[in-house]
Each structure stands twice: as C-alpha cells, then as structure tokens.
Amino acid sequence: MSLYGLEKNKTIDLRKKHIGPSCKIFFSHDPIKIVKAKGQYMYDEKGQRYLDCINNVAHVGHCHPDVVKAGSEQMGLLNTNTRFLHDNLVLYAQRLQATLPDKLSVCYFVNSGSEANDLALRLAWQYTGNKDIITLENAYHGHVSSLIDISPYKFPQLSDAEQSHFVHVAPSPDVYRGKYRADCPDAATAYADEVKDIIEKVHKKGHKIAAFIAESLQSCGGQVIPPVGYFQQVAEHVRKAGGVFIADEVQVGFGRVGSQFWAFQLQGDDFVPDIVTMGKPIGNGHPMSCVVTTREVAEAFLTSGMEYFNTFGGNPVSCAIGLAVLDVIEKEDLQGNAVRVGQYLTHVLEKQKEKHPLIGDIRGRGLFVGVELVKDRVKLTPATAEAQEVIHKLKEQHVLLSADGPHRNVLKFKPPLCFTTEDADLVVEKIDPILKELEEALGLKTSDSATTENEKRRKLSTDENGHSGFNHSSEGVQEQTKQRKRTKT
Questions:
Q1: Please, where are the H alpha helices in 187-315?
Q2: If you write DSSP's letter for every residue of 138-170 in order, what string do you get?
Q3: Helix (H) or strand (E) holding 39
Q4: Residue 353 is inside which H or E element, if any?
Q5: pLDDT tens-digit readout, 101-125
Q6: Nearest to 52, CA basis, from 398, 283, 287
Q7: Rounded Cα gap, residues 71 and 444, in angstroms
C-alpha cells in the first residue's frame, strides 16, 4: 500500500479485472492516478500537481470548502427522498429559477445530465403527443438508450438498423467548418432553414415533431458557437410544427460563458427555450441534475396519469450542495472571472495563431474555448494526430487538456471557473514549443498561414459567431442583441 492506498499497478490490474472494458480512461497507455484535488489543481499518488483545464464538473473548484461543508453538515443531519417535506428542495428550486426567465418555473430534480435529457424527452412527448425528434450533427446528450438515439456523436458505432427512424439530424451550426460558413451573409437563417426543411419532410411522411434538442454550445461536437439568431428561428419553426425547444445546458451552464448565466442567453433576451436541462456543474462533482420547464408542459406531464418519482433527485444533501455552489459563484464573482480570464485566454491564443499555421480557428465564450488544429487553413484538413500529440505532451508537463470534435482536432478548454490568467499563461507557454516542433516535422511555415479571403470575411463576424473574438463582455452581448432587434424592426 502506498501513502494514498493501492500501488498504481495494482489499481490498474483491479480496474481491468472488475470494471467494464468499454469504460475508457484518460491516457490509457500511461494513466494518471489522481488521489486529491483543490481548486484548479489535481494531484497524483506521488504528490505531483497537474493543472486541470478540462474538468467542467468541478465548476467552482475541486473540493471547494464551502461546498464540502454544506454537504457534510446536511449529511450529518438528514438525507431522505422528496416524499417528505424539506426546505432545501423548495429553497433551491426558488433560487435556481431566479437565474432563469420567468416562463421557466417548474423543476424536476434528477441525478445526472443523461437522466435530465431523458426526462426532457418524456416531457416533450407527453406535452405534444408527437414522437419525432430533431437533433444536431455531432451532438451528444447522454448515455441512456433514448439519448444514444439522438446523439450523432455516437452514431458511427451504430448500424443503420439500430438508428431510430424517429430521429432527424440537422447540420451543426458551425460557421468555421460547417455547410454555411462565416462568409455566408446570414448563416443563422441558412442553418435554421435546414431545420425547417426537415420538418416539412417529416410531415410528408405522416410524422410530427415533438422536439428540437440542442446543446446551447456544442461541446463534444467541437466547441461550436451557434450564430446569433439561429435558436430564435429554429424555435419558431419547431413550435409552429407543434414541437418544443429543449436547451441542453449540461456542460455549459451556471456562468461558464461569463457574460450570461446560461449559454442559451447568448442568443438574446428574445429567446426562451421550453425545457432546459442541466447537470455536471450544478453540484460541483456531486451527482445532481435538473430539468426546468414551463407550467404548461408540467401540467401536461401530470395528465399522463403516471406519477413521477426519483429516489435521490432533489434530496436534502444534493440541494444543500446546490445552494452552496450558487453561493460560491456569486460570492467569488466566478461569472466575472470567466469573462476576464476567458478574454485573456482568447487573447493569448490569438497571438499563438499569428505564429502557428497549425491553429485554424479559436472560438469560445468565457471559459468555454476551442482551438481547432488544421494542416491547411484553406482546405481545413484536420490535424487529428497533432492534436493528440499536444494533449500527450502537455500531460508530460503536468497540464491536463483534451481534444474533441468530429475529427478529434479541437483542443478544449473547460477548466474550473477559478482558473486564472497565470494558469492561461502557463498552458499557452507550454503549447507554443509543442506546436513549433509539430510544424517543423510537417514542414509548415508561418508564411503558409497567410490570411485568406475567407478568413478576412470571418473576422467581420467574429463577435457574433464566437470565433477569434475578444469581446466576451456582457455589454458586448447586450449590444449585439440590441443591434439584432433593431435590424428586425
């Protein structure tokens, strides 16, 4: 036994023996054994510290003392299910609702993002009486059976026979690599029209739409920022067809985008989903999640005649922890920190883009940032192997980052919200020589990265689309909303 339990090799052997082989682990060729964590840092069994740039679960920082205290004190007093009255449940629901538009007023507490999204589908099916679901290309909404069907991120692993005929996939609103790019005069409308076309085809087959579901910002799909106005137009098409709009905030909610508490609010004050799902950051690592919807949808769910009950959802300990998380976000101004540090991180990454032809695009909001690596900025050839090499080289230097997207070539920054500008400097300083070495091996030169006409056009719409932008402030978002409203009127 080591100071922190089993020897690492023994832990690996027991994992292989008793844990399902499809349960993957980071850095499988040389996994890290993490034994403790604090703030934005994690520590292995030898005491080596790692900077955590990817853990969007430890939202307010690993093992935050206020969150630990709240959970511990409530656990020592009472934990039971919600068939008994308890103040924590109603006080937390009230506090959570205060962060949302008034229309979203009814909460269902569950235990994971997957469970939240599964329940959201049930609400939509019952409310609309319809069956078909529209999802986005490269989307991921969870691991239960109903969600694998609507998660094209997982589709390559399913046969055609296994894919649901009630699920329809719309193009990802990716203005860098997608069907309509930043040089499109109105990418929001173009992508929304794709959803409208799907609805018309569904109707011709005699089917009807129950819901459109989308991550407010696509995460596994490659840190994709939808163009402003896209959700409004999609919601109009879907509601006209009798369906509802589900916003999945499981990975991007609770102030991560900085300028707003919820990522769907980046689309503007005139957009309100019918159902919002949340998870991961809600409990700072505690298994907790929630579905929030309108009174009308909730009342329709009641008419099914089936009682909804969840043994652990909304228990007193979970709600005490949830309240503590909200307190810390406010007390430590973590939403403001996401704005400030997110701006700074984007800024220093932009300077790297000027140096490194491997960097094709930088996009994000607050502390949700993606760096897409490409071998050719014109052809957008994905630099998949190079992205993996960056990840592994950083791990050797005690920085934890991950890569995702359909081509696994997007470096993802989703750190705890206590991340600092010094942390940003550290990561970027370590990425710089790694990219230089890779570019030398590929024969890429800085001159190869000369700005193309397409990039010039993209820069004109950076604030709206979240690419290469430095305007993450709430004032900037509000001004965009005002401009869009003036354009409408």
A1: 187-204, 230-240, 295-302
A2: T----SSHHHHTT-GGGGGGS-TTTS-TTEEEE
A3: none
A4: helix 334-355
A5: 999 999 999 999 999 999 999 999 9
A6: 398
A7: 52
Torsion angles phi and psi, residue 192, rounded to 5: -65, -35
Q: What is the DSSP letter of 175?
A: T
Report the distance separating Cα 30 and Cα 24, nearest Å.
Answer: 13
Alpha carbon distance 367, 255 (integer Å): 9
pLDDT tens, position by position, 438-454: 999 999 986 444 444 34
- Separation of alpha carbons 41 and 131, rounded Å: 45
Given a contact cutoff of 8 angstroms between Cβ atoms, the answer to whether 424 and 418 are in contact is no
Distance CA 380, CA 154 (A): 23
Positive or negative torsion for Cα 326, 332, 336, 340: negative
Q: Of 362, 262, 90, nearest to 373 (Cα)? A: 362
Please answer whether residues 474 and 259 qualify as being in contact, where contact means their C-beta atoms are separated by less than 8 angstroms. Answer: yes
User: So what's the pLDDT on residue 482?
Assistant: 40
Element (H, E) at 124: helix 113-128
Residue 284 backbone zone (phi > 0: left; psi -120 to 50: alpha; other: beta): left
Helix (H) or strand (E) holding 224: none
Distances (CA, A) of 312 to 16, 210, 285: 30, 28, 15
3-state SS class at 360:
strand
Has residue 285 got a pLDDT over 80? yes
Is residue 466 over pLDDT 90?
A: no
Q: Return the pLDDT at 481.
A: 38
Structure tokens at 390: 């960056």
Closest CA to 372 of 411, 337, 407, 344: 411
* Pairing of β 209-215 and β 289-293: unpaired
- Cβ-in-10-Å burial (0-12, 13-18, 19+) of 327 comes to middle
pTM for this predicted structure: 0.91
Q: Which two three-digit tokens encode residue 282?
A: 């809600």
What residues are paired with 363 via a beta bridge?
370, 467
Q: How far apart are CA 152 and CA 144, in angstroms?
A: 14
* Dist. CA 275–CA 249, nearest whole Å: 10
Q: Is 88 exposed, middle or buried (0-12, 13-18, 19+ CB in 10 A)?
A: buried
* 230 touches 252 (CB < 8 A): no
Using alpha carbons only, give the angle 372, 373, 375 rounded to the nearest 5 degrees. 140
User: Each residue of 160-176: pLDDT tens digit?
Assistant: 555 688 999 999 999 99
User: What are the C-alpha distances in Å from 53 to residues 108, 231, 348, 408?
Assistant: 31, 29, 15, 17
Q: What is the three-class DSSP state of 265?
A: helix
Position 126, amino acid: Q
Report yes or no: 226 and 173 within 8 Å, Cβ to Cβ. yes
Q: How far is CA 15 from the centre of its chain?
A: 28
